[in-house]
Amino acid sequence: MQYLSLVNLHVGDRCKVARIQAGSSATRRLYEMGFNTGAQIQVLKNDRGPIIVGLGGHKIALGRGLAAKMLVGMDQ
Amino acid sequence: MPITIALMGNPNSGKTTLFNALTGANQHVGNWPGVTVERKEGQTRHGNQVYTVVDLPGTYSLGAFSEDEVVAREFILTGNPDVVINVVDATNIERNLYLTTQLLEMGAKVVVALNMVDEAEARQISVDEKALSRRLGIPVIPTVASKRKGIDELMEAATATIRAPLNGHVRLSYGESIDGKIAELEDLLKNGDLAYPPGWLALKLLEGDEYLRKVVDVSLKLQGSDEFTRFWDEMAVQAEDFQLEIVDSRYKFVGDVTKDVVRRPEVAVQTTTDKVDRVLTHKYWGMPIFAVIMFIVFQLTFAIGQDLLGRWMATGVEYAGGLLESLLVTVNAPQWLIDFAENGVVGGVGAVIEFVPLIVILYMLMGFLEDSGYMARAAYVMDNTMRAVGLQGKTFISMIVGFGCNVPGVMATRTLESKKDRMIAILINPFMSCGAKIPIYLVFIAAFFPSYGGLVLFSVYALGILVAFLMGKIFSKTLFKGETSHFIMELPPYRKPTLGNVLRNMWDNVSGFLTRAGTTIFAVVSLLWVLAVLPVGVEPYGAESILGRIGLLIAPIFEPAGFGNWQAAVGLFSGIAAKEAVVAILGMVYAGVEEGMELVMAIREVFTPLTAISFMVMTLLYTPCAATLGTIKKETGSAKWALFSATYTFAIAWVLAVLVFQVGRLLGFS
User: Fold this and answer.
1) For the domain B176-263, what is the CATH code?
2) Which fold has domain B3-163?
3) Rounded to a whole number, what is the distance in Å from the CA of B550 to chain A's nearest CA?
4) Does the interface ipTM go beyond 0.90?
5) What are the domain boundaries of chain B?
6) pLDDT digits over B228-265, tens only?
7) Which chain A residue has the Cα nearest residue B387?
8) How far apart are the C-alpha atoms of B664 and B667, rounded to whole Å?
9) Are strands A70-74 and B140-143 parallel, antiparallel or unpaired?
10) Are B111 and B86 in contact (CB under 8 A)?
């Protein structure tokens, strides 16, 4: 499966978290907030500033630098 | 034997609302020993029993990620609460149950308050709480804390759980290799005589918990064990994978528990939050809207707090002062005591009390924004701008808190995870104009710009933010280099703020202000009064008094800024003790009265519109008050930074005040 960086996705895209390549503490924090492997997310906003994603019905804003390090697999 | 309930939950799960619903007015706010995390405690009654409820900090996890998490964890393990009420947001159950899983791992007695079931219903999310309870092995009680629904049932379940023995210990499987390592490590720790259950400790160590690692390292070294060190050396390579696998295992457990228990609609219901967010977080409109909201906040504060309620308060203080004076005259009190009561007490403390309505309104409006969920959006829309100056969006929240008071503002920087972000946020916080400075601006506004009150106030605040940004940029390029940390922030759904929360938040802040008025400010004002009437025989508050001489000594410093008179110098000098004292002292030295129209008239004679502006700039930016400096020392762990803060802010304030005055004069203003 091809992985994409979260920043390259468009509003409305649904995907699954595959791997996070940030520093270990940021990665952990993301995991604990629910961005663990396989978690379903949807891009809600991606223009300027942090990207907003929907996760389990809630909205979480992620800085662009961090979003760039989150690799996701697109849902078919 | 008092029964203790610990309240635990994710941020935005409605934990504070539940705490307020449980304890009502019986609350006490303090600090956890050794750290600056706020400790909230209250009493509640169920049947004939009184319970102590401890509100633990809202966290996503029980690792050692932040001070908040460590505090919460330590309390559950070593504070011996009889039961933990875990507040779980019914609309976001999977993420919330992650924390529940960790509580179960710790072997705590847990009752789940499945909160905000009304919101879940509105979003067509259904939760079979009976099945959930069965699978978790603990009671799950649906609640709507904001409407006080389910509180009795919750307390009933908590009471039953306290009485019942702990029903087993949930032990998750983290996969063969990790389970094996846990067992191995547990064996090593068993004889260690540590304060934590060895199984749990083993798990946490494998998760890379640095806090516990240190604890264990220290105590095992003392007992001469190097087996532990050896174990760890062998582990090193796998450590990071293990950490994430453990988190994944917990989520897998949560997934199994919630399977067929939680049902969501195929397509998420379009909520009001989504619609509102499309406007408030808009890529172009988000920021202007934020500016307008803040402007309205200050306009309202000014209109209601000052013009309307402030007047009544002033009349009240005047009346009380007159009453006190005539009482003292009737009992034949000595003249100096009457003077002290009139000038020191009523003059000083009274002047501060008059601004209570204003602060009440400001905090209520801020609390309203906070409770509605808007503050997280403010951090979001500010992230880009903040990044441009080397900071991140969350820093802006600590800055907004600083508008109320810099002490909690500096403390609010604890949510920032990187050291660099935090140090900068602490150092720039004093530029956020605190509530205690408002009275100073108000006097000058009344004297020179009565028709532009809101605008002037807004400009002052805006200048503070601008200077803070500038200094942030400079600090991030010089003193604290390194990468700006990541922005991760939950945007909670918008909610109708509950009056209780808004009032509670306001009272927490205002009571602090009142306490200061009664203690620090009273002490400062008394001391200044003594300095103003000594040596014996001088005209009180005259240039000959000790206070006057201090003023004369430092006044030349302010000559280039246009207010090189000793009275202004004395005002600024007393402001270092407490900003609230500035107006009181200005009143006494200029007009012989504490406040009101006489002071405004006197100010109008001594200052000009231009020097009024330069004086306001000085007041806005110069050395923070003693309480803030003390907090900076505590939070940075070094007196050096407090001293640095005291001096660099003064230098900046002076330079800008001089600039305003000199440039203004060149342009022909007076």
Assistant:
1) 1.10.287.1770
2) Rossmann fold (3.40.50)
3) 51
4) yes
5) 3-163, 176-263, 290-666
6) 777 777 776 677 778 888 888 998 899 889 888 888 87
7) A49
8) 5
9) unpaired
10) yes
